[in-house]
Amino acid sequence: MATSEALRDALGTVHVAEPCPRIVCLVPSLTELLCTLGLGGRVVGRTGFCIHPAREVRTIAKVGGTKDVNVEKVRRLAPSHLVVNIDENEKPTVEALAQFVPHVVVTHPQGPLDNPELYRFFADLFCVPEAGARLAAEFSHAWQTLLATPWPRRRVLYLIWKDPWMTVAPTTYIGNMLAAVGWEQVFTPGAMRYPQIELDDAARAADLVLLSSEPYPFGETERIELARRLGRPVLLVDGEMLSWYGSRAIAGLAYLRELALGCPA
User: 2 in helix, strand or coil?
Assistant: First the structure.
């Protein structure tokens, strides 16, 4: 097991291993990770967007959304640990919760290769190191399988929202996932991590347009309309598989490989 000095979160805060935590998790993909590590029984609170694994989370209390957390509900659950993410949760809310939750664990994975350390961190923090090692080995196998194919470089436009149209920067987790198969995200230098774009201008620089299933639920109607409008191949993609870090990233790598193998030339 890692020493306490090794248990540093994304802000550098040192945490001490705790075998009997009461966890409120405000990050959907990390709620799933905690359950995969065998810690579902230690999670006492979650957001309404924490939907996996369905059977386990059904019995965990909801405390609102990722950004509209019911502070009093969290207080009543008396958690020892709060799990949050820099991109997904709002700082003022986290600061309010930190007034009464003893341990706030901050995460900020930037790409798929951050996952093995994420597994080991939570596994060591909550005293299930064997489960973390198993997941890290599964991830390594999926990663090596993905890299075994020599992927050609392509320019892609990954859309996450409409009205206004929004995309993701190459430095985001999604951008780094796409890069693993040689897909370079169309991007304007200096823009935000999730910038608004002029759709037609951005699409002209792309070989392929990807419509994510989340946070905006793009469907077949939008795919057909955009393919006609943009004159580019347009694919619907599973946003959970490409944007959720944690244990889902293992299946996400396999999904990405199949997507890249089958996408239009």
Answer: coil
Tokens of 231: 């004159």
Residue 25: closest CA among 34, 17, 16: 34
**pTM of the predicted protein model:** 0.94
- Note the pLDDT tens digit of each residue in 67-96: 999 999 999 999 999 999 999 999 999 999
Phi/psi of residue 127, nearest 5 degrees: 65, 40
Which structure tokens are listed for 30? 């990390």
Identify the structural domains of the chain with CATH numbers, from first to last: 4-143 (3.40.50.1980), 154-262 (3.40.50.1980)
Residue 27 near residue 84, CB atoms below 8 Å: yes
Phi and psi at 54, nearest 5°, equal -55, -45
Of 141, 123, 140, 142, the C-alpha closest to 131 is 123
Q: Which residues pair with 237 in a beta bridge?
A: 212
Alpha-carbon distances of 226 from 139, 230, 262, rounded to whole Å: 35, 6, 20
* Phi, then psi, of 12 in degrees rounded to 5: 85, 5
The tokens for 55 are: 């059977």
By CB atoms closer than 10 A (0-12, 13-18, 19+), residue 80 is middle
* Tokens standing for residue 235: 């694919």
Token output for 99: 């007034």
Residue range 138-191, pLDDT digits in tens: 999 999 999 999 999 999 999 999 999 999 999 999 999 999 999 999 876 666
